Amino acid sequence: MADIVLDKVSKRFPDGTTAVRDVDLEIADGEFVILVGPSGCGKSTTLNMIAGLEDISSGELRIAGERVNDKAPRDRDIAMVFQSYALYPNMTVRENMAFPLRLAKLDKETIHQKVEEAAKVLELTPLLDRKPANLSGGQRQRVAMGRAIVRQPKAFLMDEPLSNLDAKLRVQMRTVVSRLQKQLGTTTVYVTHDQTEAMTLGDRVVIMRGGAVQQVGPPQELYDHPRNLFVAGFIGSPSMNFLHAAVEDGHLRTALGDVPIGDRVRRQLDGADAPRELILGIRPEHFEDAALIDDETRRRGLEFDAPVDIVESMGSDKYVYFTVEGERASAAELEELAADAGAADFTGTGSSLVTRLSAESPVREGEPRRVWFNLEKIHLFDPSTGRNLTLHEGRASGALAD
Amino acid sequence: MSVNATPAGADVAADAERAAGRHAAVPAQRARRRSKAPLSENKRAERRLGWLLCAPAALVMVLVTAYPILYSVWLSLQRFDLRFPDQREFVGLENYATVLTNQFWWTAFGVTALITVVTVVIELVLGMGLALIMHRTLVGRGIVRTAALIPYGIVTVVAAFSWRYAWTPGTGYLANLFDGSAPLTERASSLAIIMLAEIWKTTPFMALLLMAGLALVPEDLLKAASTDGATAWQRFTKVMLPVMKPAILVALLFRTLDAFRVFDNIFVLTAGGNETSSVSMLAYNNLIRGLNLGIGSTMSVLIFLTVAIIAFVFVKLFGTAAPGSDDGERR
C-alpha cells in the first residue's frame, strides 16, 4: 500500500499532440480516486502513465515516495483491471489468478492458498477450473478483479472496469468494487467516463478535460461547488440547466425573468473587461411546483410560468421538461459536453428546461404551470472563460450573496 | 438474388451433383423432405442457394485435382514404361513394393525430411522475429515490410539461379569468399546451400502468416501481463504464443507441406547430384526423364500420402483446441 503523487506530469506524443498537461495530483494511501471526463480527455493516458504502460514526457511520478518514472510496470508493484478484462484465454480462472504469483516465483502452496482466498472473496470458487471463454461478462470481470487483488499490490488501477457490463450488473458490481476497496484499504485509481460511477464510488473525483485537471474534490463538493462551466455540466444527472443571461442595470435578463444579483456578483461585473453576457446554471432539483412552497421558502427564489412539455414520473419525484423562450446558452464547454453525450447534432426546438418536482405536483403535459426556483442555488458562469462567478473561496453562494 | 432466376447456375449445380455422384442421393432426400416436411420453404431455398454457391468451386476442384489424383493412382497400379509400351499390364501393388524397398527412394526421403524439418524450424524462428519487427515498427513500416517481402516476390527458379551463380567457383561472389571452393560439388555443403536458399525464399511467407497471428493478440493482454510482472520474454512465451497458436499451426502446416515438395531449388542448384534429390526430384526423374509412368506415379502417390499424413497429424494433434475453449466441455 502506498500513496501516489503526480507532480506536473505531462504526456506529449511524437506527432505533437499533448494528451496530458501538467497534472498535479496527490493520492493518499488507501484513497479511492476517480479520474473522470469525456473520451479523449487524457484520463486513460494518465492511468497508463501511473501503470508504466506509457512513458512520462515530463514531470515526476512517485509511488510510496519513490520516483518511478523510469521503472517498468513489473517493478512498480501495481495491479490493473482493464475494460476488456484482458484475461488470458488459454488459462483457466485459477491459472489466470495465479499468473502474477507464479511470475513472482511464490511457492505452489502459497499460490494455491492465495488464489482460493481471493476466489472466496469474489465468489469465484466454483468457476476456478473454467476457461474465460465459458464465463459470463460479470464473471470475467470478477476474475479480472481477482487477478488484481490476489497479490496484494501497492495500488489498483482500474480502466473503465464496468463499462462492458449491462446496466443492472454494473450497479451491482459498483457496490462490489466499493466494498472490496474498503475491505482491502488499497490505494485505487479508477478511470471512468460515467459521472454516476464517479459520484458513487470515489473518495475524491478528478475531472479532466483536454488533458488538464478541471477540479479535484469529494463528489458532493464538485456537485455543489463546481469551479467552472465544464464541471457543472459534466456532474449531475439529469445535468444542470444552462440559460443565457444578459447583464442589464443590476439585473440579469433571462428566459425565466429578471434575476436580481447581490453585491458580490455585482462587484465582479463592474470591471471594464467584465462580461456583459453570462450563463446561468441551475440544477433540476432546485425547482419546485410553486403551489407546493411555503412563504418562507418562496422569498428565497423567483417564480415563472411555462408550458409543460414532457412529464417523467420516477415515483419518488417527477422530472418535468418545460419549453422556455429566449436565446440558447452557448460556450465551448457546453458544445463539448453535448458532443460527448452524442447530442451535438440534436438540439430539438427552443431551449428545454429540466426540473425535478415533488411527486405530489399535479403537472400535466401540455398545460402551463407556475414554477419556483431557488436563487441561492444559482450559478453564474463567464461564457468566455467558463469560470464560476458565484464561487467564493471554493463555495458557491448563489446570485444574491453580499 | 432469387435462385430460380439463375438457370445457368442451376445447370452448374446439377452438373456438380452428377459429377459428385450424388444424383441418386438427391431425389431420395427430396422425397424424404416432402413426406416429413421438416424444412420450411425458406430453409430449403437457403440450402439450395448454398449448394449453388459452392457448386462452381466444387466442380473445378473435381476437374483439376480429383481426376489427376485418381488417374495417377490408377497408373501406379500398372507396369507402364513408355519405352516399352507393349509391356503395359496391371500389377497391383508391385510398384509400391519396388519403390519402398529401393535405397534411392529412402535416401531421397531422408533428404526431403531433413530439408523439411531444418528449413521449417529455422523459418519459424526467423519468421517470428521478422513478424515481430514488422508488427512493432513505427517508423517506415511500409519500407520495412516491403523489404522483408522481396525474396518471396522473386520467382524461385530465378532466385535459385542467382544462388547457383553466387556459389560458382571463380565467378561467384560467395564462392570467392571461401577461397573459390566449389560447395555445390559436395553433398553436405550442397544440402546446406539448398536449405539456405529455401529459408531465404520462404521466411517472408512465414512472417506474413505469423504477423496475421500477432494481430490477434489484444494489446490489453500484453499490458495486463506487464503489470502482472511478466518480462518481455515471459509476455512472448506465456501470453503471445498461446494466443497465436492457431496461426502458428497454420503457418507450420503450410510451410511443412510446401517444404516436403521441394523441387525448384534442388533442380537448379544440384539437379539432384551427390544424393541431394528430394522425393519430388526422384518422381520427376522417373516420370519425365525415365518415362516410367508406373514407378513415377507410385512415387507421386506416396508423396501425396505423406503430405496427407502430415496434414492429418497437424490437424488432429494441435488443431482441435483453439485457445479459450474448455475443449468441448461447454457450460
TrEMBL record, chain A:
Keyword Transport part of the UniProt annotation: yes
GO cellular component: ATP-binding cassette (ABC) transporter complex, substrate-binding subunit-containing
Biological process annotations from GO: carbohydrate transport
Keywords of this entry: ATP-binding, Cell membrane, Membrane, Nucleotide-binding, Translocase, Transport
Pfam families reported for this sequence: ABC_tran, OB_MalK
GO molecular function terms attached to this record: ABC-type transporter activity; ATP binding; ATP hydrolysis activity
Domain ABC transporter: 4-235
Signal peptide: none
NCBIfam families named among the record's database cross-references: PRK11650.1
Name this polypeptide is given: Carbohydrate ABC transporter ATP-binding protein, CUT1 family
From TrEMBL, chain B:
Keywords of this entry: Membrane, Transmembrane, Transmembrane helix, Transport
GO cellular component: plasma membrane
CDD domains xrefs: TM_PBP2
Subcellular location: Cell membrane; Membrane
Sequence intervals crossing the membrane: 49-74, 104-134, 146-166, 199-218, 291-315
A GO biological-process term: transmembrane transport
Residue intervals of the ABC transmembrane type-1 domain: 109-314
Primary residence: membrane
Region: Disordered, residue numbers: 1-41
Biased composition, class Low complexity, residue ranges: 1-13
One Pfam assignment: BPD_transp_1
UniProt xrefs under Gene3D superfamilies: MetI-like
Signal peptide location: none
Membrane topology term: Multi-pass membrane protein
Annotated family: Belongs to the binding-protein-dependent transport system permease family.
Descriptive protein name: Carbohydrate ABC transporter membrane protein 1, CUT1 family
Organism of origin: Micromonospora chaiyaphumensis
Record lineage: Bacteria, Bacillati, Actinomycetota, Actinomycetes, Micromonosporales
